[in-house]
Amino acid sequence: MRRTATPEPPTREAELLAELSAVYREAEEVFRGWTCQASTECCRFGITGREPYVTSIELAAVRRAIASRGGPRALQGIVRAGGTGAPEPPTAGGDAGRRRALPQAAERRCPMLTDAGRCAIYAARPLGCRTFFCDRASAGSPVRHNDVTRLVRKVQDVAARHEPGGDLGRPLTRALADANPGAAGGPSRARARRAR
Predict the structure, then answer these.
(1) CA 130 from centroid of its chain's CA atoms
(2) Are the C-beta atoms of residues 3 and 109 closer than 8 Å to each other?
(3) Under a CB-based contact definition with an 8 Å cutoff, are residues 134 and 42 in contact?
(4) To 5 degrees, how large is the angle CA 152–CA 158–CA 164?
(5) Quick one: which H or E segment has residue 54?
(6) pTM here?
(7) Are 89 and 117 in contact (CB under 8 A)?
(8) DSSP code of 163?
(9) Cα 86 from Cα 139, distance rounded (Å)
(10) Do 82 and 118 contact (CB within 8 A), yes or no?
(11) What gap in Å lies between CA 103 and CA 101, rounded to an integer?
């Protein structure tokens, strides 16, 4: 039997993750000069009413970042301990450290946000986290809607080649729960569909 030239799945995923990284670098160029006051407001989905949607390839990058931190249980400890990964929040001046007072459940805090106000997987954060800035952000050069749309389409193209339907984004917390059977209390829907 002849072997095909198709790369093995881990190799193929690594190549697609490299493409995703290239899109993330392009996003950094598009948003050059934009800075965040580290309010972590965008990481509190209940406050903003927004949550980043992730494609299958972005979820793969997040899962790899979680695995590199020791897995979901280790990540929970890192989050509670304050962890590292993102730049230090500002320590002086302004209201950057002030947040709206909501019960933690109502904040719907990103599971990657550490108690110290940092992203535990900052280098692997999804495109939605790279392109959303709250009102407290300092704007760099104007960013055209077309530039953001182009970046989204590039990520979707990579995700469509990652897995069938991978380009269809899902809210980050739901995607993580579906990908982590222990967190959701059962097998992921994607795995259940494949098993049929």
Answers:
(1) 8
(2) no
(3) yes
(4) 110
(5) strand 53-54
(6) 0.74
(7) yes
(8) S
(9) 19
(10) yes
(11) 7
The token pair at 145 is 């809607």
Is residue 125 within 8 Å of 36, Cβ to Cβ?
no
Residues 90-134: tens digit of each pLDDT: 333 444 444 444 455 677 889 999 888 889 999 999 999 988 766
pLDDT of residue 158: 97
What are the two backbone dihedrals, phi and then psi, of residue 77, each rounded to the nearest 5 degrees?
Answer: -65, -40
Residue in this structure with the two tokens 């280790």, named with its chain if needed? 74
| Rounded Cα distance, 12 and 17, in Å | 9
CA 193 to chain centre: 24
Nearest to 45 by CA among 129, 149, 159, 146: 129
Q: Each residue of 10-60: pLDDT tens digit?
A: 679 999 999 999 999 999 998 888 887 777 888 888 888 889 999 999 999
- What CA–CA distances, in Å, run from 80 to 15, 27, 44, 112, 119? 33, 30, 16, 10, 12
The structure tokens 């993750």 sit at 17
* Helix 145-162, helix 9-30: angle, nearest 10: 180
**In which region does residue 142 sit, left (phi positive, over 0), alpha (psi from -120 to 50) or beta (all else)?**
beta
* Residue 192 pLDDT grade (very low, low, confident, very high; cuts 50, 70, 90): very low
